[in-house]
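Bug report

Summary: structure tokens for NAD(P)/FAD-dependent oxidoreductase differ between web form and batch submission.
Environment: batch mode, default settings.
Steps: 1) Submit the sequence below via batch. 2) Compare with the web form result.

Sequence submitted:
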Amino acid sequence: MRETEVYDVLIIGTGPAGLQAGIHAARKKIRVILFGHPQASALYRAHLENLCFVSGKRDGQELLSIGLEQVRHFGATVVEEDVVKTAQEGDLFMVETESGRKFYGLSLIFATGVSRKGLGLKKEKELIGRGVSYCVDCDANFYRGARVAVVGNESAAAFGALTLLKYASKVYLIAKDLKVAPELEKELRESQVELLLGRWIKEIRGAERLEGVILDDGHPLELDGLFIELGAKGAMELAATLGVMLDPEKFTYIVTNKRQETNIDGIYAAGDICGPPLQVAKALGEGCIAGLEASSYAIKKRKALFNS
């Protein structure tokens, strides 16, 4: 691969931590690229009034817009797509976006925030691990030859349904308003996934185990497994494939040191994905550190690999 095709810093996440990391890394005059939909950030629909130097009650969407303008001003590239796959290929890290594009870099920062959204339905929580799951990559193997459904409107659900085709005998995708890249939608429509579009789940059925669901049009669906994948591909799944260490108790957060380094050389994390307190001020501070550390790592790595 030519040197010009390799980015110095790949950043997954365009919320406060990702944008701050991008600003500090890009100011080093290196190649920086960020991935993610800013509107998916928890800040997007929030208001902020407890951040030092920011007066009054400020709209989160406005602040994110300013951050995006800043990170671009300093030379970073922003790709407003979800990342659906990560890998380490030799000395480089690879991320693949929902449109199928692949990008390579010398360092990688996870700044995705945390969210494990549920449907908020009765029996949902009590059937977790007994037919209800929030992670296709984690649990697909348990549903070989089974009838399963994935519910969600975005890339996590779409890729989850396609992945399950390798295991399950029947796969449904339930989506009220499918919002994925055209290439991904085309792949879905040409696959064996049965699309139940314009519909949602209103009831989960089962006592000791999941038995099925009732859709909002009253249609019953018998199932062995239900995967709730609301939003983008989860950071835990993306990080776990690279061998990044998660907290040993709940496997909810990425473990880092004070330099925002993970257990894998060249991989950093910042913001809510590193654990509480889930505050913008913390995310900005960790983003700053991660951006500086990742850029320093990448500069040394580029010299070693390309003698430049």
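Above is the batch result. After comparison, the two runs are identical; trailing whitespace caused the diff. The chain has a mean pLDDT of 91. The two ends are 15 Å apart (CA to CA).
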